[in-house]
Amino acid sequence: MKNFQKRTNWAWPYIIFLILLVILPLILIGIYAFTDLEGHFTVQNFVQFFSKNEAVNTFIYSIAIALLTTIICLLLGYPAAYIMAMKSFGTPQVMALLFILPMWINFLLRTIATVELFHMLNLPLGEGALLFGMTYDFLPFMIYPIYNTLQKMDKSLLEAARDLGANRRQVFTKVILPLSIPGIYSGIVMVFMPTVSTFAISELLTHNKITLFGSLIQRSFGEGGITMWNYGAALSLIMLIIIGATSFFGQQEEAGENMIR
Question: Is 99 domain-assigned?
Answer without folding.
Answer: yes
